[in-house]
Amino acid sequence: MTSADHHLAIYNFGIHVDAAESAAVRGFALREPMNFAAAERAPGFVARSGYKGVPGPRSWGPLIFPRFLTEQSGGAAVSSLSLWHDLESLMAFTYTGVHADAIKHARHWNVVQKWPPMVLFWVPAGRRPDWQEGAKRLEMLFDNGSGPQCFTFKEPYDPNGRPAEIDRALVKQLAAENLAAQGALLDAVLKLPV
Fold first, then answer.
1. Could you give the count of Cα atoms lying within 13 Å of 143 in the half-sphere of its Cβ?
2. Pick from 76, 4, 13, 11: which is nearest to 48 by CA?
3. pLDDT tens sequence across 47-105
4. Which of 46, 58, 59, 98 has the greatest number of CB atoms lying within 10 Å of its CB?
5. DSSP three-state, residue 152
């Protein structure tokens, strides 16, 4: 379901079990740059926010975290914010290859969450959401459930606010393209320690 006048935003949020530089989350730190590289190769990827003071894309505003960080008594928060052409492209990337490997091991690096791990929402093409918007939409999803302003793959909406159907055949096709494009990245990731 591609929309020429909208992009799909995804905001992810988790809290590490230990400090970002610790051995406990080393597997995450080793995979993170490869996840970004895999996303950039994926069909349907538009752009991602960087992090202030870190080489790479510029940050889309000050880094803001949802209230769950404070409720969990701090810790090392981890989040990402990116834009995609459609639900199918994002779903194919999320659950295939390099990123799927990270999801598989996330329980080793992150505390058990009572909040959703991610939120999806549409923005007009050309507008980049900031970190604060991502955090607020995740909180909204937790507080109110899925709706046109904040949703998940299980209950998706289209840019016009109507419930959407994900084209599973297209997801499968895009997943195959992702695997082909990831090649050496995936080989390297599968050799990394958890």
1. 10
2. 11
3. 999 999 999 999 999 999 999 999 988 789 999 999 999 999 999 999 999 999 999 99
4. 98
5. coil
Q: How far apart are CA 28 and CA 167, in angstroms?
A: 30
Mean pLDDT of the chain: 96
What pLDDT is stored for residue 73 in this prediction? 81
In 97-182, the DSSP E strands lie at 118-124
Is the pTM of the predicted complex or chain greater than 0.90? yes
CA distances to 112, 120, 154, 163, 167 from 157, rounded to whole Å, are: 27, 9, 10, 4, 13
- Exposure class string for 164-185: b at 16+ Cβ within 10 A, else e: bebbeebbeebbebbbeebeeb
- How far apart CA 134 and CA 93 sit, in angstroms, is 19
The tokens describing 122, both together, are 């549409």
**Residue of 193, 28, 4, 24 lying closest to 102 (CA atoms):** 28
| E-state strands within 16-52 | 45-48
Give, as one character, the DSSP assignment of residue 113. P
Please give the Cα distance from 154 to 55 (Å, whole number).
34
Residue type, 93: F
**How far apart (Å, rounded) are the C-alpha atoms in residues 87 and 155?**
11
- 3-state SS class at 2: coil
Residue 193, SS3 per DSSP: coil
Q: Which two tokens stand for residue 94?
A: 């999320």
